[in-house]
Amino acid sequence: MTFAAPLRLAVLAAFALGATAALQDASAVVADVARALGATDLRTVQYSGTGFTYSFAQNYRPDVAYPKFRATYSRAVDFERGVAREETVRRQFETPPRGGGGQPLYTDARAAATVTNTSGWGGGALALTPHGFIKAAAAASPSISSRRVDGRTMTVISFTARNQFKVEGYVNPQRLIDRIDTWVPNPILGDTLIETVFSGYRDFGGVQFPTRIVQRQGGFPTLELTVSDVQPNAPVTMQVPPAAAPQPARAEGQLIAPAVWYLAGTPDPNSQLVELRDYAVLIESSVSEARALANLAEARRLVPNKPIRYHVNSHHHGDHAAGVRAFVSEGLTIISHEMNRRFYEQTVLKNPHTLAPDALSRNPRPANFVWVDDKFVLSDGTRSLEIYHVPNGHAANLLMSYLPQERLLMITDIFNDFGEPRPNDPPPGIVTPYYAALGERVRGLKLAVDRIAPSHGRSVVEGARLWKALEGKVQAPAVSN
Ligand SMILES: [Zn+2]
Asked: What pLDDT shows up at residue 190?
């Protein structure tokens, strides 16, 4: 019995050696996997199922999973034309509502997107299906290696998509794809792993297709799908949308009070700028580094003789924290809720940004933070800017900014001004718990709010709009589990 362990190791080494010898020809392995999947003659596929989707980078706190939605999902893929269309219907699942992603959803939220193999995702969304992966690998210059995963030796097929993105597929003993990894750039998380795991393969008309697909991004799930219907070579007709012109990053200041500007522009959301005696404060960041830097350039144009010393970061969501690193690189002190400390210090500032080097990776600089608990005030003796934590369901760390002299409130996400009703708004007479939380906080602090400058909006609105929005019964959407 004493030699059992060394013997097992020896057997393993021999197997690994054999495996290595068998892996010499990458294209032979790729062809073998394509045959096992039934991908060789697969021109199109249509599949659908049910499960859950999650809103990436919209979690209630930085350390919890993204908000979860019950979902029905269908996808049509045309491998020959390199086009896929995805349709999702999301339903409220979190109860009580927690996090962003359009919550609370009072009705089903429908979304459809058409992608090509050059859009989004590192390898193109098509390469993140087993059949799309193996077809993309065959068309690229794949390499193979042997790796130990959970005590098993697996063959890994790797290639570089679009000369930039590494894509790796793990082949199981049945010669099917167990998992595909790729890495994509993200302005907050840096080089971000997208991990797609396939299991429960079944035969659908000669094609092996997974009945379970689980995707994770940035360490948390984004999709959990149980596939119920697969139609290989179904006739699919999809229009390839014209490539959307990238939205230019721009910001334009509108004076909304003496020495206070609303910075409107694209992409959404917007920012606010407050000038005090010796410096100025840029409130709210954006969904992209480019917009954040456009905001900063506009702030410097409007207040040319003083430093833009502080940035107020409303919360950690993907559309509100993409400028944090850029502002660190420009020497601004970041004011944020203390709940974000670990996430910003250990993840946002430390993760590598090699796929899309940003301002901070080009010009590294130590970060200065002010961590806010309940309240923080910047004052120059005559005017002050008050920053308050707002306990609410959208983001546990949300900060709002208030100018007491101007009786002006600056807030995002739990009060918006989109200019038109949105499909999933509460029905008449119902108030969302998110809005109610803002009303409660403003009342509790006895703030006089004449006007509100919402970041998701166009400019300022009358403060009365908040109280009008709060007329009704506070109620979260019904959830049937
Ligand atoms: Zn948010």
From this structure: 97
Distance 397 CA to ligand 1 centre (A): 10
**Nearest alpha-carbon partner for 88 in 99, 104, 101:** 101
Nearest to 38 by CA among 144, 176, 228, 211: 176
Tokens representing 279?
A: 């410096």
Which strands, in side-by-side order, build the sheet including 461-462?
375-379, 384-389, 399-403, 408-411, 451-454, 461-462
Task: Tell how far the Cα of 100 is from the centroid of ligand 1, in angstroms.
Answer: 5
Residues of the chain with pLDDT under 50: 1-15, 17-23
Distance CA 201, CA 204 (A): 9
Closest by CA to 312, choosing from 230, 226, 375, 247, is: 375
Can you list the domains of the chain with their CATH numbers? Answer: 19-232 (2.50.20), 250-474 (3.60.15.10)
Among the listed residues 337, 325, 322, 334, the one whose alpha carbon sits nearest the alpha carbon of residue 368: 334
Q: 322 CA distance to ligand 1 centroid (A)?
A: 12
39 C-alpha to ligand 1 centroid (Å) = 41
Task: Give me the amino acid identity at 282.
Answer: L
pLDDT at 107: 94
Gap from CA of 101 to ligand 1 centroid (Å):
8
The whole-number pLDDT of residue 14 equals 41
CA–centroid distance, residue 176 to ligand 1 (Å): 39
Handedness of CA 175, 178, 184, 190 (dihedral sign): negative
Distance 68 CA to ligand 1 centre (A): 15
The C-alpha R_g of the chain, in whole angstroms, comes to: 26
> 144 and 159 in contact (C-beta within 8 Å)?
no
9-60 per-position pLDDT tens digit: 444 444 454 444 444 589 999 999 999 999 999 999 999 999 999 999 999 9
